[in-house]
Amino acid sequence: MQLWNDRRLRLSLTRLGGQYLLALLAVGAFSVNTGNNLLYLVFALMLGLFLVSGILSRRVLQGLQVAGLEGGSLFARVRGGLRLRLQDTGRGSLRGLELHLTLDDATVQPGFLERDSRTGESVVVLHARAGHRGWTRVRALELRTCFPFGLMEKARILALDQSLLVLPHPRTPPAAPTSWRGEGRRSQTQEGTSSPEGTRPLRQGDAPGRVHWKRTAQRGQPWVRTFEEDRPLGMHLRLDLRAWGPGRAFERELERLSGAVLQARLQKRAISLELHDPEGTREVRGHTPCWRALALAQATGTGDDAPGISRAAEAPIS
Questions:
Q1: What's the rounded Cα separation, in Å, for the pair 148 and 157?
Q2: Contact assessment for residue 100 and residue 142, using Cβ atoms and an 8 Å cutoff
Q3: Which of 43, 93, 278, 293 has a 20 to 30 Å separation from 264 between CA atoms?
Q4: Strands, E, within the chain: which ranges?
Q5: Is the pLDDT assigned to residue 76 strictly greater than 90?
Q6: How far apart (Å, rounded) are the C-alpha atoms in residues 307 and 143?
Q7: Assigned CATH for 1-166
Q8: Bridge partners of 141?
Q9: Nearest partner of 271 among 258, 256, 290, 255, judged by Cα
């Protein structure tokens, strides 16, 4: 049951509130018919409780403004965290707010703000799952509360106009040795002479004793342990946008390169990306700049793949 609507505030009865209102009307009707002063007193107390519930829940929604929204590394088809910063004047007062964020082509799980921070700023992490790479727009933030008695639900809508960049889905790169020509070892070590550092896909020449069986079972392909003394050097990626046409094949190639950037970041090594398009050649360095370049990349060719042109390759960073 919705009582009224305006541009910023919506008030509605909960199921418990509807039952409470029926009981209130019944007590009021009995008090009028019987003239019993005690019933009048009970009716007045119940009515006062109902009004106090509405006033307190309205106050909970006041004094909150969005101070910022940080997307971080939000990948397509992968659940990521959005850091929502709220500026408030509650100074540690109870809120009990549900936060509902609206994004284009994305689903966002509701968040919860229980109590204000005494510093005047509160941070809530909302988990979002975007459908496609590229820019997506944040439309609105809805604040809902049933505080304090659960009789009435108030909702306040804050209009937002902010764009977030969704990165390509980080597809696990293939384990074929030819796909990883850009890795080199700082030193050749024997098994057991250094502590394990991480994992990577199996390459030709890896000893069977270095297979990471748990990661292999999770990924469905062989993965091996890496050690401190044989960490790979940086990787250089190359992508010719003129060799690709728009379509699923191009998106899969971007996802493969995004997975390579993610693996380089997990292994704490440098990475660079060289892009070729009709306007020329440009190079970006660093994990985040490479992801952003892949998210904004547009195929300029006419087919899925032009014969004789290398789509992407990896090589050590000099």
A1: 20
A2: yes
A3: 278
A4: 2-5, 9-13, 65-70, 79-87, 94-103, 106-108, 111-115, 121-130, 134-145, 152-166, 196-201, 223-227, 235-240, 271-277, 280-285, 312-316
A5: yes
A6: 54
A7: 2.60.40.10
A8: 101, 158
A9: 290
**Sequence letter at residue 297:** A
Domain residue extents for the chain: 1-166, 169-184+232-318, 195-231
Amino acid type, 38? L
CA 222 – CA 213 distance, rounded (Å): 8
What's the angle, vertex CA 180, arms to CA 174 and CA 182, rounded to 5? 155
The structure tokens listed for 303 are 């087919």
At 93, is the pLDDT very low, low, confident or very high (cuts 50, 70, 90)?
low
In degrees, to the nearest 5, what angle opens at C-alpha 273 toward C-alphas 197 and 130?
A: 80
CA distance 121 to 116: 7
**CB count, 10 Å around CB of 89?**
11
- Model confidence pLDDT, tens digit, residues 50-66: 888 777 777 777 778 88
pLDDT at 194 over 60: no
DSSP character string of 43-95: HHHHHHHHHHHHHHHHHHHTT-EEEEEE--S-BBTSEEEEEEEEE-S-SS-EE
